[in-house]
Amino acid sequence: MKQLSDDELVKGYRDLKTPEYLAEIFLRYSDSAFRTAFQFSGNNADAEDAVQVAFVKCMHDLYQYQLGTNLRAWLMRIVINTCKNKKIEEKRRSSRLEKYSAQNKGYINAENTQEKEELQQMVRKSVALLPEKYRTPIWLVLFEEFSYADASRSLELPEKTLRTQVARGLERLRGQLQKAGVALSIPLITELTLNTPLEAASDSFKNKCADVATSPNSIATNIATQKATTSTIISFLAITLILAGGYLAWISFINEPQPNTIIPTNISPKFKSIQKWNFDENENYSGIKPVHGKVYIINSLGVNKSNCLYASEGSMFELDISEFQLPIKITLSNDYIVPRGNKIQKGGINVFKSSYPSNKNIFNFAGLRKVIRLSDSEIAKRSKNQNIKKGYFGQWFKRTIYVTEDCIDIWFDGIRKGLVYGTSTDNKKIYIYSLSSGIFDNIIIESVKPEIVPNHSKFSSFVNKFPLQKKSILYDLKDDCQQLSISKNSYLAVYEKKRLEETIGLSNAGDEKALTFGSK
């Protein structure tokens, strides 16, 4: 197991449900998880409890981890969120600071190398007294030696914000040390943190971490019955109830048969890298299917006067992405039927995933770009397009759709048009909903590197402020357009799962028919 990469361990557990894979992940990162939790709790017992709860959650949510990213950063995010939810805070921070200052009166020269170990302990204690928004970024970047990119993913913060918090935290840390009679420069503080000896989790605790993979119910039950604070008891009782009542349901939800117990020594995940549809007669259409409405192949109206896909207003078709590793990029060319004039008012598409959870909302940002108006020269050029005679706008527009674990980012001719936030529980299908009758050609799905995906952290931070909505709402974004750098006509639709399915006809998904040739 030790020779397997993180992704191989995750893939092995997903495919085989063998606990040894999970145990190796927990053992691999138990030290780092324990030290991070300790920064919140301040004592070994609460830190160990928090890590075990986080590992149980990791086991439950491992199907959400995106292969090819950073498992350590993903796991630390769960540990950090677990600690935050338990609200383990330093209640006597001010009194501890006063006591610490009284114990360290006098001026200490940082250049004396013989005092290095003592200074490291002082810095370590002072970091523990910083506000959480400074303490945790400093701990991950300077003590655990995370890169800024990995730390920002763990804390779910933009990298620029994280760098600012580290810089301000170091300034505050320097001020705290000065009040205690210790004069250190920021470069020296940084050097001391990077070379501070860090404690490791005990062997017995590492064994407990491995036990989480094989006996999650008993671990959660044991934790819940230990003497702890009220918040710890409530959290662990919740975990116990979830595991006792919902563990079998979760296994059923994954919907995979139990495999044999043979453990492969080399796992090489097989994913598609690209899939194209030009709608020639000899193509394989198994990965694209109509869901409802009129969706079929027609001839002579494509980009090169070839075949293309027709979709009527309000219709929907699906793209199978189950054989791709996220993130992916979908590109397609699109033209619409328009009633009159040179202004597209209603044409467009909405894009959604399959299998949204019922306990989370789906956020649809729309109208992020202005209505399209063509110049006189563009109008003259498109007048030669044969499709105008058929009632189409007469110009092929390129759409690019980026799909990640939690977001669908839709771009229209190089400009962001919309985003849909919502995490699928299976990431198997993408549904394209046609707002008006139109034609589609040159549909391409391809896997891309994460750095290719446009940054959408502003939108992610924005939706995080919304509590769970039991009914769908429409939110006017006029007051937020400058913050989000979007058009004043933009709006946000917050959907409840059932309402979304009713609105776009997702309830019909599952009855798809094979794609056929028709006429229009």
Chain-wise SSE layout:
Blueprint: H1 6-16, H2 19-41, H3 44-61, H4 71-86, H5 93-103, E1 108-109, H6 116-128, H7 132-143, H8 148-155, H9 159-179, E2 182-183, H10 186-194, H11 203-214, H12 216-225, H13 230-254, E3 274-277, E4 288-292, E5 295-298, E6 308-311, E7 316-320, E8 328-336, E9 343-344, E10 349-353, E11 362-366, E12 372-373, H14 376-382, E13 397-403, E14 407-412, E15 415-421, E16 429-434, E17 438-447, H15 457-463, E18 473-476, H16 481-484, E19 491-495, H17 497-504
Describe this entry's structure for a reader:
With 520 residues, this protein is of the alpha+beta class. It folds into 2 domains: 6-254, no CATH class; 274-508, Jelly Rolls. Helix content is 41%, strand content 18%. It contains 17 helices and 19 strands. The chain has helices at 6-16, 19-41, 44-61, 71-86, 93-103, 116-128, 132-143, 148-155, 159-179, 186-194, 203-214, 216-225, 230-254, 376-382, 457-463, 481-484, 497-504; strands spanning 108-109, 182-183, 274-277, 288-292, 295-298, 308-311, 316-320, 328-336, 343-344, 349-353, 362-366, 372-373, 397-403, 407-412, 415-421, 429-434, 438-447, 473-476, 491-495. The strands form 4 sheets. Strands 3, 5, 6, 8, 11, 13, 14, 15, 17, 18 and 19 form an 11-stranded antiparallel β-sheet that branches. A 4-stranded antiparallel β-sheet has the order 4-7-16-10, with no helix packed on it. α3 crosses α4. The model is unreliable at 88-112 and 223-269 (pLDDT under 50).
